[in-house]
Amino acid sequence: MLSLEFIRKNPDAVRRAAQLKGEPAPVDEILRLDGVWRGHLHKAETTKAEQNELSKQFAKSRDESLKERLRQMADTAKSELAVADAVKRELDDLLLRVPNVFHESVPVGESEAENVVVREWGSKPDLGFAARTHYDLGEALGILDFERAVKIAGSRFAFLVGEGARLERALVQFMLDVHTREHGYTEVWSPLLVNSAAMTGTANLPKFADQLFKVEGRDLWLIPTAEVPVTNYHREEILDADQMPIKYVCYAPSWRTEAGAAGKDTRGFIRLHQFSKVELVKVTTAETSLDEFERLTRDAEDILQRLGLHYNVMLMCTGDMGFAQYKKYDLNAWAPGLDRYLEVSSCSTFNDFQAMRANIRYRPERGAPPRFAHTINGSGLALTRTIDAIIETYQRSDGMIAVPEALKPYMGGVELIGAR
RNA sequence: GGGGAGGUGGCUGAGUGGUCGAAAGCACCCGCCUGCUAAGCGGGUAGGGGGUGUAAAGCUCCCUCGAGGGUUCGAAUCCCUCCCUUCCCGCCA
Questions:
Q1: Å from A237 (CA) to B24 (C1')?
Q2: Staple partner for A73: which of A7, A19, A51, A125, CB 3.0–4.6 Å?
Q3: Catalytic site includes residue A8
Q4: Which residues make Cβ contacts (< 8 Å) with residue A203, sequence separation at least 6?
Q5: What single-letter DSSP state applies at residue A112?
């Protein structure tokens, strides 16, 4: 969230950022309630101060004639505070609904059409024959099964079978190994159900409740990304600056309702209610967050390069970047069969927006007052669509799929999927 | 699931109605002392919010002893609800 203080001092900047993001922002209502809140709070606190003073006198003198005044003061302080608290709750709720501002390097734009490709790696492969889609190939090879998933769970679910499931496991191992051994991340295994406080910390609540699966009758939600539990790992903590940046990598399944995506990507292994992801999360100081964000993006890109997949890096424009993000890159891998790019990673930095919600702070130096940390995350990578890109990029004219060099050590001797 | 114990500052741990945001110890910081280090001596060290201030500093007030309610002029201390930790029993991958 943005702090009340920041909104007080920069109401126009907040309004402008929200408008360019295409998000509503109740700035006027916040400023109004802020005045009301402070009025009642001030009254409550001054009354309380008088009461405390007189109460001390009473403790000494036991002068019963003071009691009636004390009682009145207590009543006044209590009722004023009750009003102040009620207004503050309303205010806090509105604050959670104000979108983040964005970095000056973010292009202004309304839709994905105004996103900017900042770099590309590799080129579209020339297969020498008509490329088939991953779902066509996958079903033919028996490594992807959508029909049976419908029977078990419904649409937007899938089974990976045999060498398909093995491919997913190989990718997970490969990515975790690279990020832990070469990029310096600490591996984390986390709860896959989290409470509302955690969801609020990463800004999935209150605005995006309809995107989440909820456990009936309990304050537990299925995570839409490991970003939620891992970022919240340090909630309510004050960290030491010298232990930062903190870097975690976490493999976890993710669940999303895909509300609002009806009819979109219904075909194929692209947009599912459940998918796997290796997630990168950093908690950094204010000074280093932009650099660390660039590095995290490169760490994710490194996986694509090692897999030999053509991709681009796209800088999201204001209208396409989202409520909480301060700056965001998407990594899009080329899928020759689909003849389009697939978003395999989304890397974002949040400034102190999430840290403020989750109350993650650090002490810049010994004895200094705590500051809010900066949080960063990105997929490194999403498994589902990476598998699509691999299948379509490494397909052969005979319908079999070559295993990328980097994955061979993880495939238990399988070098060609479909050969058996 | 049943029963017992317990949640206090960075840590350990006192504190059962007022003078307690909180003894003491540890840790850490600043001085002094000292060939150097250690020891010793003195001082300091929680977080949040409001007001004032151009701002920083400062001053001042309020809140916070797991969370939320309640009793009381006054609550870390009494009462209620919830959460969590731990031990014993039961169950279980």
A1: 27
A2: A51
A3: no
A4: A1, A96, A323, A324, A353, A354, A357
A5: G
C-alpha span between A357 and A375 (Å, rounded): 11
Mean pLDDT across A284-290: 92
Q: Which nucleotide is nearest to A62 (CA to C1')?
A: B73
Active site residue A385: yes
Alpha carbons A132 and A396: distance in angstroms, whole number: 10
CA of A80 to C1' of B79 (A): 25
| Exposure string over A312-338, b if 16+ CB within 10 A, otherwise e | bbbbbbbbbbbbbbbbbbbbbbbbbbb
Name the band, by pLDDT with cuts 50, 70 and 90, for residue A241: confident
In this predicted model, what pLDDT tens digit does every residue of A10-30 receive, in sequence order?
Answer: 999 999 999 999 999 999 999
Distance CA A116, CA A139 (A): 35
Task: Indicate if A256 belongs to the active site.
Answer: yes
**What is the interface pTM, i.e. ipTM, of the complex?**
0.85
* A80-119 residue pLDDT tens: 988 998 899 899 999 999 999 999 999 999 999 999 999 9
Q: Work out if A370's Cβ lies within 7 angstroms of strand B.
A: yes
Domains along chain A? 4-95 (1.10.287.40), 112-417 (3.30.930.10)
Q: What DSSP assignment string belongs to A113-178?
A: GG-EEEEEES-----SSPPPPHHHHHHHHTSEESHHHHHHT-TT--EE-THHHHHHHHHHHHHHHI
Of A289, A346, A348, A379, the catalytic one is: A346
